[in-house]
Amino acid sequence: MKIVIAGAGAIGGYIGARLAKNGADVVLFARGPHLAAMQQRGLRVISAEDGDFEVRFDAAKPGGGGPQVTGDLASIGTCDVVFLGVKAHALTGLAASLKPLFGPDTVVVSTQNGVPWWYFQNYPGELNNLRLERVDPGGTIASAIEPQRVLGSLAYFATDIVDPGVIRHIEGNRLSFGEPDGSKSERAKKIAETLIAAGFRCPVTTRFRHEIWVKLLGNVAFNPISALTGGTLEELVRDAGTCRVVRDIMVETEAVAARLSIELPISIEQRIAGAEKVGAHKTSMLQDLEAGRPMEIEAVVGAVVELGERLGVPMPATRTVYACVKLLDDKQRRSA
User: Fold this and answer.
1) Does residue 165 come out as left (phi exceeding 0), alpha (psi in the -120 to 50 range) or beta?
2) What are phi and psi of 205, to 5 degrees?
3) Is 0.85 surpassed by the pTM of this model?
4) Alpha carbon of 285 to those of 196, 225, 243, 291, 298: distances in Å?
5) CA angle, corner 25, sides to 186 and 156, nearest 5?
6) What domains are there in the chain, each with its CATH number?
7) How far apart are CA 144 and CA 149, in angstroms?
């Protein structure tokens, strides 16, 4: 099985590194200093849970086996699986360049946080084929990736890039999979087996849309508030004021999910308690802000606001935090 990691940052790079360590036929696509460091020195993973390790790469070549790294997607050739490792806001720019990777049966695994672009494709009821403008402006992603290729995935591990070519694994090893149609497909099982062999826990669920909303329940609240305050997860939960805002946003998000017939299998209090257990962890949005990178606002927060507007769900707390973090992101982009 030939696997391409299209966006080998903190999440994608960690997946690719573990696959490479296990001898998989994997190609990592990256850009900038991170790419240069991997080409020159390989990729180093620092992990208190699993131990540190390094992997070395060859230049990517069509049909070549073994771990490879490249900054040119067109040099790779077709593959069996593409993991989309970029943040949701970067997918619009990446999607059109994925075509050289696609064979007739190539599977595209989405790992983005928030509401994915494919969420309403082949969706039952009046929202069938609804496109969220904040997630897929102009339908660029949907036009580039056929619905039948898509396999959903959610990553439950904390990683960050501490230096170019160096990824720190903080905790966790779960990567869940789910078909958009709720089936338990052979392709999902085969991909999961490959990841399990590389050290991940990989459940395949028939209720993937429910799982999206469980994760989103936390991200839509914790991510933007952490960016606005600089607070870690445990700080946001233990401060009475910010925790009240977190809870208000979760209540509003739960109401949107309910309008989509999603009954969450976890309570808001359980979700908050789970975040506190993670401890002094900075959310991905705060990490991006501190690194001067654009934040993953629209798929995580903007999409929920857009759905609330469409479904008639009042969202005063979410809209307020969304407006504030949007301004923060706009200011950072202008100063970059």
Assistant:
1) left
2) -110, 150
3) yes
4) 28, 9, 18, 10, 11
5) 60
6) 2-206 (3.40.50.720), 210-335 (1.10.1040.10)
7) 11
The token duo for 154 is 């959610």
Rounded to an integer, the average pLDDT of 93-100 is 95
Instruction: Give the angle subtended at the CA of 110 by the CAs of 170 and 16, to the nearest 5°.
Output: 50
Q: Which of 4, 71, 22, 13 is nearest to 46 (CA)?
A: 13
pLDDT category at 251 given cuts 50, 70, 90 is very high
Using the structure block, give the residue that is written with the tokens 């490792």.
85
User: Reduced to 3 states, what is the DSSP secondary structure of residue 218?
Assistant: helix
How far is the C-alpha of 56 from the C-alpha of 34, rounded, in Å?
Answer: 14
Query: Mind listing the pLDDT tens digit for each residue in 118-127?
Result: 999 999 889 9
CA 11, distance to chain mean position in Å, is 8
Q: Which residues contact 258 (CB under 8 A, 6 or more apart)?
A: none
Joined tokens for residue 84? 């989309």
pLDDT at residue 65 in the model:
61
Residue with tokens 């407006």: 323
N-terminal to C-terminal alpha carbon distance within the chain: 40
- CA distances to 65, 103, 108, 170, 188 from 177, in Å: 25, 21, 12, 22, 7
On the question of pLDDT at 104 being above 90, the answer is yes
Q: Are 216 and 252 in contact (CB under 8 A)?
A: no
The pLDDT-based confidence of 59 (bands split at 50, 70, 90) is low
CB 321 within 8 A of CB 301: yes
Partner residues linked to 102 by β-bridges: 79
Average pLDDT, the chain: 94
Separation between Cα atoms, residue 192 and residue 186, nearest integer Å: 10
- Choosing from 2, 61, 190, 215, the catalytic residue is 215
Q: 221 with 253: CB under 8 angstroms?
A: yes
Look up 215 and say whether it is catalytic: yes
